[in-house]
Known about the structure:
Layout: E1 21-27, H1 30-40, H2 45-48, H3 50-53, H4 65-78, E2 86-93, E3 103-114, E4 119-127, E5 133-142
Antiparallel strand pairs: 1-3, 2-5, 3-4, 4-5
Amino acid sequence: xxxxxxxxxxxxxxxxxxxxxxxxxxxxxxxxxxxxxxxxxxxxxxxxxxxxxxxxxxxxxxxxxxxxxxxxxxxxxxxxxxxxxxxxxxxxxxxxxxxxxxxxxxxxxxxxxxxxxxxxxxxxxxxxxxxxxxxxxxxxxxxxxxxxxxxxxxxxxx
Length: 158
């Protein structure tokens, strides 16, 4: 359990500027897809059955879009703005499918900093090995709030 352990928080809104970028690359393996499908109890044949997928316009199994969204969420939670962040809204498109064993390069860029609202807006673009855009989105994020020191009275309602 994490109680009592101090965790490093991500960057404060005052430390974030328009134009900042984050790039990361994710290779998608079968084990990752199977773990995701097991956790969500998703048995969509388009994601795992080659015989079914071969008869669709996709021609082979694809990666679930929501799994790709999870990679975006994870990058925001880990790196930009980092731990303590919260996604408020997102508009994400998947113009091309992502296939098993693909490598997706994600590029995040801060496009707005709304200090009075305590929000940042960022774009995200994902490209595959052929440099085709497979993800395109806009995400509004609440960076971590700085907490005041905890005094004895702060825990009275627990």
